[in-house]
Design goal:
Blueprint lengths: L2 H39 L2 H12 L1 H54 L1 H16 L6 H13 L4 H17 L5 H17 L16 E6 L6 H14 L4 E5 L7 H12 L2 E3 L7 H14 L4 E5 L7 H18 L6 E7 L4 H13 L4 E5 L9 H9 L3 E5 L7 E3 L2 H9 L4
Parallel strand pairs: 1-4, 1-5, 2-3, 2-4, 5-6, 6-7
Antiparallel strand pairs: 7-8
Helix pairs in contact: 1-3, 1-14, 2-3, 3-14, 4-5, 5-6, 6-7, 7-13, 8-9, 10-11, 12-13
Length: about 400
């Protein structure tokens, strides 16, 4: 079974399990209510009341009404208790499912432009094609390049696809559609172990260094990630290491206030490594779990930037062993192949441990995720799927497949 089929079955199975749980919950409620009805009918108080009713007809009507009201009230209270018990028992499970649904919806909404541009064209191509020909592969090639998967990646992909079609004697276009999806994601998951997990320091604060050119959303990403980590119970600190860009310090400070995170800054134009030294030292004193450091993005001067990052790493490492634990490169997804070029340049300058792909919801070229893996062999760890502070998500290849290809499932 291919990757596409596995994901399709996975999400179908989740839907079936959800329906089954709802039915079982309803049955439990009905069984409990029936038991209550039986208990009520065998209630000795009710038998005494019936006896009293035969002795005194005038009191019968009043007592009957009072007893009925009391029984109805008791039944209502018991039903409420049963409902609350079931709700409490299933609350955690439902909350988890709600969270998963919410994340799936983010992927669904965030990848809608790419889906409309790429997947719908792929479906259209298959619907109007009767036979797999060279013309079919040429049009498929154009569709993939327009999705910003990258020319070199697409050319090698098409050659691999042709070989598979020939070796397996594939003639069914519906099956070929699934093969295309499988082969695309083999690009991402094959022959390497990639993780979207942050490498946390077990012996002190975890340091995450954020790099990237100006305007890609570094500061916003730091704010969103701090909120996410704090919601997970981590004590965070932001350090304004970009002392050169006008307004960078104020922008990060505004985010720190917005999410309720501690903040360290220096004067504009001051030595960023000095600010970072003060921030890391203070974080250690205050037992901070995660330190998120902003940096300048002056890629036009590679030599100076490389020296600056080397100095930062040295300062951080002198205070915390094996730090920084992560150096995340922030790329604006809407810049397409230009973002890939930036990534290549930063990879030459410093050790990049992961990619944060912002504004993925604002582009029709979500195939850049595959291009990043193929050309850089760096994992995408987080993706930005909206403007809200909660719209930064750890990258999940299965949810990405779902969001991109749900119209084919």
């Amino acid at each position: 079974m291919g990757l596409f089929s596995k994901v399709k079955n996975l999400f179908k199975k989740e839907e079936k399990e959800e329906i089954k749980e709802e039915i079982e919950e309803q049955e439990v409620l009905e069984d409990e209510f029936e038991e209550n009805d039986i208990e009520e009918s065998n209630n000795p108080e009710e038998t005494d009341n019936v006896k009293e009713k035969t002795d005194n007809k005038e009191e019968k009507n009043y007592q009957e009404e009072d007893n009925k009201k009391e029984i109805n009230d008791n039944v209502k209270d018991q039903k409420d208790v049963i409902k609350n018990d079931i709700k409490v028992e299933k609350k955690t499970k439902k909350e988890k499912k709600k969270e998963t649904k919410s994340t799936l919806q983010l992927y669904d909404d965030g990848l809608s432009k790419t889906r409309d541009n790429f997947v719908n064209k792929l479906i259209s191509l298959n619907n109007r094609t009767k036979k797999i020909t060279e013309e079919y592969f040429e049009e498929l090639e154009d569709i993939l390049i327009m999705a910003d998967i990258g020319v070199n990646t697409v050319l090698s992909f098409i050659e691999r696809l042709k070989k598979r079609v020939k070796s397996e004697n594939i003639t069914d276009l519906n099956y070929l559609q699934e093969v295309i999806v499988d082969e695309l994601f083999i690009i991402y998951v094959d022959n390497s172990i990639l993780t979207n997990k942050i490498k946390f320091n077990e012996n002190g604060p975890t340091v995450i260094l954020f790099v990237g050119v100006n305007g890609v959303g570094k500061t916003t990403t730091i704010g969103k990630m701090a909120l996410k980590l704090m919601n997970d119970g981590k004590k965070c600190m932001m350090v304004a290491g970009d002392t050169f860009r006008a307004g960078a310090i104020e922008q990060l400070e505004e985010w720190s206030k917005k999410v309720g995170c501690s903040f360290v800054k220096g004067k504009e134009g001051s030595d960023p490594s000095s600010v970072i030294y003060d921030g890391v030292k203070k974080a250690k004193e205050e037992n901070v779990d995660v330190i998120l450091i902003d940096t300048a993005g002056r890629l036009q001067n590679k030599v100076n930037l490389m020296k600056e990052l080397e100095k930062m790493n040295k300062v951080i490492g002198s205070l915390i062993e094996n730090a920084p634990q992560e150096t995340l490169l922030v790329i604006d997804a809407t810049t397409g192949q230009n973002g890939i070029s930036q990534a290549k340049s930063f990879k030459e300058i410093t050790n990049i441990t992961g990619i944060v792909l912002t504004k993925l919801d604002g582009t029709a070229k979500g195939g850049i995720v595959l291009a990043i893996k193929e050309e850089l062999d760096i994992p995408v760890k987080y993706i930005g799927l909206g403007e809200k502070a909660t719209d930064l998500e750890p990258f999940d290849i299965e949810k990405y497949i779902y969001g991109l290809f749900k119209d084919m499932m």
